[in-house]
From TrEMBL:
Keywords, ordered alphabetically: DNA damage, DNA repair, Hydrolase
CDD domains: UDG-F2_TDG_MUG
Gene3D superfamilies with a match to the protein in the record: Uracil-DNA glycosylase-like domain
Pfam families: UDG
InterPro entries assigned to the protein according to its UniProt record, in alphabetical order: MUG/TDG (IPR015637), Uracil-DNA_glycosylase-like (IPR005122), Uracil-DNA_glycosylase-like_sf (IPR036895)
The organism's taxonomic lineage, starting at the top: Bacteria, Bacillati, Bacillota, Bacilli, Bacillales
Species in which this protein is naturally found: Saccharibacillus brassicae
Domain Uracil-DNA glycosylase-like: 8-158
UniProt-listed GO biological process terms: base-excision repair, AP site formation
GO MF, one example: pyrimidine-specific mismatch base pair DNA N-glycosylase activity
Protein name, as recorded: Mismatch-specific DNA-glycosylase
Length: 172
């Protein structure tokens, strides 16, 4: 199955970073395509988008200043199918992308994504005290996977914190 293409550009407000694409995303070629994944619902409910986008519109979010990538590009059934070597290589590739594109915020979609990238043992939700890449603010958000047991209301509140930050940055 082919890797999923990133959606990257200079001047992004947010780069959403996942572990890796699902098999459904691999089949369709679009980020967060599994119907059990709540990503698109969360963006709408938090106000990060004005409507619910569909996975096949993922490239359109570049116009909103939102990009997409993963720490590992290969689609798998689950994160347990990712080899340590893939993470090692993925960390370097991700660091290069962040340094090259310098998004305003790197939003790690899941604590595990952040801890896997940074090597830190723990992370709190929201903005982090230290940035992994100079010039990029790190934000840790809950995973949007349908397997997450955190109440949707709490997940949306965390993503809403990101929206408030972006509105302040834009002077809205």
């Amino acid at each position: 199955m082919p890797d999923i293409n990133d959606h990257l550009d200079d001047g992004l407000s947010v780069l959403f970073i996942g572990f890796n694409p699902s098999l459904r995303s691999g089949e369709t070629g679009h980020h967060y395509a599994n119907p059990r994944n709540n990503f698109w619902r969360i963006l709408e409910a938090s106000g990060l988008t004005s409507r619910r986008y569909a996975p096949w519109e993922d490239g359109d979010l570049l116009k909103l200043g939102y990009g997409f990538t993963n720490i590992v590009a290969r689609p798998t059934r689950g994160v347990e199918d990712i080899a340590r070597e893939e993470y090692r290589a993925g960390r370097e590739i991700l660091r290069t992308k962040l340094s090259r594109y310098l998004p305003g915020v790197a939003c790690y979609v899941g604590k595990g994504v952040y801890t896997e990238f940074t090597g830190r043992k723990k992370a709190s939700w929201g903005f982090q005290k230290e940035s992994e890449v100079d010039g990029v603010i790190d934000f840790v958000a809950p995973s949007s996977s349908g397997l997450v047991r955190m109440p949707m209301r709490e997940i949306v509140e965390i993503y809403t914190e990101l929206r408030f930050y972006l509105e302040d940055e834009r002077g809205e």
